[in-house]
């Protein structure tokens, strides 16, 4: 559990939920919508109905998938590239997806694996340290709803990706520690520690608590 006051935790949670909702409410990029529409069904190893259902599932998952990508990259352009690669990989491996299981979780696993592959190749995190790009993606309605929302978003970009991911899953999306740990593939205790450190860093950055250095 985070050592910050409960009122601070609640306030940060409200801001993060509003932030996540603002990303979900954005119009989806035409490039991604077009990609899904144009995915080839000719080489499908299954019945014709399966690709259509899978394509529909990709469309339904797109807002949440893109929001997850944005929370990882803090860069809308990089997020869209990441989602595009995820969609292509998912389509190529659709025969591996078990019908009836959680498509969103499966897609998020592909997306985050791709993200960290890119990070390893670049030997640095993909982030906008100054929050310049991050501040441009907020919906106007969300900016008007809270004077703190933009500042919260800007400081998210200064967190290590692992902490930012954990915080967005638990505090913004409302996942349990157990569910988030299962998705990421880490111990529940590790998930709790990452969320706690991220909360403390944001609280300090926003002047709510003495600032703690972010650490992985």
UniProtKB/TrEMBL annotation:
Signal peptide: none annotated. Residues 151-202 form the RNA polymerase sigma factor 70 region 4 type domain. InterPro entries: RNA_pol_sigma-70-like, RNA_pol_sigma-70_dom, RNA_pol_sigma70_ECF_CS, RNA_pol_sigma70_r2, RNA_pol_sigma70_r4_t2, RNA_pol_sigma_r2, RNA_pol_sigma_r3/r4-like, WH-like_DNA-bd_sf. The keyword Transcription regulation applies. Keywords: DNA-binding, Sigma factor, Transcription, Transcription regulation. The keyword Membrane does not apply. This is RNA polymerase sigma factor.
